[in-house]
Amino acid sequence: MAFSIAHSWSSMPLPLLQTSPENPKPIPPIWFPSTRRFLRSSRSASTVSSLAALSCSASMAESPVEAATIRDICGGKVPEHILQRAEELGYHRPTDVQQKSLPVLLSGRDCVLHAQTGSGKTLAYLLLIFSVTNFQRSAVQGLIVVPTRELGMQVTKVARMLAAKSVDSGNISRACTIMALLDGGMLKRHKSWLKAEPPEIVVATIGSLSQMLERHAFKLEALRVLVVDEVDFMFNSSKQVSALKKLLTSYSTIENRQTVFASASIPQHNRFLYDCIQHKWTRSDVVHIHVNSIEPMPSHLHHGFVICSKMERLGVLLHLIQRDAPRSGIIFVSEQSEKSKKSGRPPSAALLFDFLKDSYDGDLEVILFEEDMNFNARATSLSDMRQRGFLLVATDLASRGFDLPQTTHIYNFDLPRTAVNYLHRSGRTGRLPFSTERCSVASLITSEERFVLQRFENELLFQCEALLP
Ligand SMILES: Nc1ncnc2c1ncn2[C@@H]1O[C@H](COP(=O)(O)OP(=O)(O)OP(=O)(O)O)[C@@H](O)[C@H]1O
Q1: What is the CA radius of gyration of the chain?
Q2: CA-to-CA distance for 370 and 331, rounded, in angstroms?
Q3: Which stretches make up the Helicase ATP-binding domain (predicted)?
């Protein structure tokens, strides 16, 4: 039976690793997924030594790095024109995750970047890619894999903004090319482009990337850095996991590339690190950069709830929006079940969207964003959001990676299914790294759902207040 990562992360007992020399714990037996049992054999002994190497690296990453600016950390490694551009875009002071990860990333080590939503992981891995890219060489050297088209568009935009200036080398002037190879894109056109003149950097969804690799549209022989963003989501997605594993071990190998995994949530991260080494997704001295491990969500978020019946929810939501007057807000709704689709019922996101269109009379634009919309309609929604203040009605499709810094309020019209989903939904607000502006997350729940929210509070270490009497 094939071993499922999704299953193993969520339900396997995990031996804790020694994570710091000051807090030594005996290294327990190792869980072997293939045999589905703990082993103490010689094979286990060799794994223990690689885990010990890994735990030293982890503590190394935790030691504070004295640096005042991004330029101080990256100077001499990241090309000057990229650093200048980063400064023009307002990136001077590093965020915590950038301060801790950049020295390790720039030293060539494989890394698992594990830090709060909105903490600036994207800039950290992009600076690494620019530091190793030879702008004179037309070959794919940096590859970023993302779970959704929209996140891919966002990462591509930031990368292009950073690379906006052309590079002068003697008389040759050449701009760095960044290709977005995303689901719903024009793959035929991309195939010709890839063959004629490969870009230096590709941002891809795994489906489109696999198609191109299978059709031999390009090779990864010049690949220097592979980033997998929202890595826990990708490994948990039955649609994406096998293609991702193939990319990690067949289309390219750890001997030839530096590997970076990023996410705000890596459930059972020690187990994941173990799997990285065991399955050769990363080298054995991979570093786990875990920022704010005792506070999984940004501290300036205020969490509240209102207990109401399903019938009352629309009215309560409207009341909250009118009372809060958000700068922009996102209202999360559950994805429609297959059963409800088959019965021909409209999705609740669409119903809520229609309700707000009719009943909300404020200044914000009401916008819909959900799975069943085609890619063009989703793109139109995204561009509408960037133009002005919005009230976005969305499914969890919008909960990962979306960077809309003007979002001040999140409303859970339906409770998310898991604490991890709660974390990512909440992380769509409070995305200005050095701001202490209070942003809020409100959940509309029935009295029976209170215990579910309490479970999220315990798991994610936050407190939720009752909002209305
Ligand atoms: N050094 C910096 N100075 C100022 N702003 C920054 C800096 N680094 C990143 N940002 C901004 O912070 C916001 C969040 O960054 P980013 O999207 O990289 O977060 P993330 O860690 O990837 O979050 P998520 O896990 O939710 O995807 C972006 O708007 C980005 O422009």
Answers
A1: 23
A2: 12
A3: 102-284
d(CA 145, ligand 1 centre) in Å: 17
Residues 338 and 403 in one domain: yes
Residue where a domain stops, chosen among 241, 269, 290: 290
d(Cα 138, Cα 200) in Å, to the nearest integer? 6
Name the token pair of 135.
Answer: 């702008």
Query: Are residues 239 and 314 located together in one domain of the fold?
Result: no
| Same domain, yes or no: 19 and 36 | yes
Cα dihedral 154→157→163→165 (10° resolution) = -160
Q: Which helix (H) or strand (E) holds 141?
A: none
| Single-letter amino acid code for the residue at 155 | V
Helix (H) and strand (E) counts in the chain? 18, 18
**Structure-token pair, residue 461:** 């270490």
Dist. CA 367–CA 384, nearest whole Å:
8
pLDDT tens for each residue of 325-348: 999 999 999 987 777 777 777 678
Does any domain span residue 189?
Answer: yes
Q: Are 186 and 53 part of one and the same domain?
A: no
Which two tokens mark 277? Answer: 């080494």
SS (H, E, C) 359-375: HCCCCCEEEEECCCCCH
Tokens of residue 31, six digits: 């869980």
44 lies in which domain range?
9-59
User: Which atom of ligand 1 lies nearest, measured to the CA of 264?
Assistant: 25
Q: What CATH number does residue 355 fall under?
A: 3.40.50.300
Distance from C-alpha of 390 to C-alpha of 406, rounded to nearest angstrom = 9
Ligand 1 mean position, distance from CA 216 (Å): 34
Q: Is 57 in the pocket of ligand 1 (CB under 6 A)?
A: no
Tell me the torsion sign for CA atoms 159, 211, 235, 128: negative
For residues 41 and 75, state if they share a domain. Answer: no
**122 in a domain, yes or no?**
yes
Report pTM.
0.85
Residue having the nearest C-alpha atom to atom 9 of ligand 1: 120
How many angstroms is it from 148 CA to the middle of ligand 1?
18
Across the range 237-265, mean pLDDT stands at 95
What is the C-alpha to C-alpha distance for residues 76 and 84, in angstroms, rounded to an integer?
13
* pLDDT number for residue 264: 96
The domain boundary, picked from 268, 290, 312, lies at 290
